[in-house]
Design brief:
The chain is an alpha/beta fold. It contains seven helices and eleven strands. α3 runs parallel beside α4 and α5 packs parallel to α6. Belongs to the DapB family.
Length: about 250
């Protein structure tokens, strides 16, 4: 966008991430926090305040309603809420079809290190027989696996398919329910939920005689704020639906 101060509204402003976002936006010289609403509060406060960009950190049950509101009000949206699957993505693209200048950015993880770790995992996946993901989050997280883990698994699976690799080896024929975790595009994903955690992910890759572990840890929610601010500042320059930060970082 231009050098003018951007007017930003936050949905979910009372939550853990929303609180961090409001503080980060308020502290940025080129951004103006004009509205901060809870996840189920009056959304027209955002448009009444003249928001140019809204940031959503709420709940998968309501996030589509919020995105639709933003699109209808011609407000760019930055979305950190989980639950945007392929079907929902197509719905959002449909909403944006008649709004060629409007942008929606959906980001599984705003931490720069997490974006890089996922990128490294895709690169490494071509060279190993197998890969599994362990994601660890705080006990208050409502979804499992995390959006980050799902996106990482899909990226790894795509890289393996492009390299012509066979399915990951696994001789398991007897297991307690869930012992091998969920499967996302053939990649096993294991979710841990513990108090004291914030957001952590390991990708473990293996071939005969060696393993490689790629791990990222967010130790405080402030680690997500550089990515959030980048998305806010960039969304108007990326019309349509954008997934992740890679394009914004020049990695895609």
């Amino acid at each position: 966008m231009s050098d003018e101060v951007l007017r930003v509204g936050v949905i979910g402003a009372r939550g853990r991430m929303g609180t961090e976002v409001t503080q980060a936006v308020d502290a940025a010289d080129d951004l103006d926090l004009v509205a901060a609403v809870g996840g189920r509060e009056w959304l027209f406060s955002l448009s009444d305040a003249g928001s140019q960009v809204v940031v959503d950190f709420t709940h998968p049950d309501v996030v589509m309603e919020h995105i639709r509101f933003a699109v209808d009000q011609n407000i760019h949206a930055v979305v950190g809420t989980s639950g945007i699957d392929d079907e929902r993505a197509e719905t959002i693209r449909g909403w944006l079809a008649s709004k060629p200048g409007l942008g929606v950015i959906v980001v599984p993880n705003f931490a720069i290190g997490a974006v890089l770790a996922a990128r490294f995992a895709r690169e490494a996946a071509r060279f190993f027989e197998s890969a599994e993901i362990i994601e660890l989050h705080h006990a208050g997280k409502v979804d499992a696996p995390s959006g980050t883990a799902i996106a990482t698994a899909r990226g790894i699976a795509g890289a393996r398919a492009a390299a012509g690799l066979a399915a990951v080896p696994d001789a398991t024929t007897m297991e307690a329910a869930g012992a091998r975790g969920a499967q996302v595009d053939g990649i096993h994903v294991h979710s841990v939920r513990l108090p004291g955690m914030v957001a952590h992910q390991e990708v473990v890759l293996g071939s005969s005689g060696e393993t490689l572990t790629i791990r990222h840890d967010s130790l405080h929610r402030s680690s997500f704020m550089p990515g959030v601010l980048l998305a806010i500042r960039s969304v108007a320059d990326h019309p349509g639906l954008t997934f992740g930060l890679e394009q914004l970082l020049g990695l895609d």
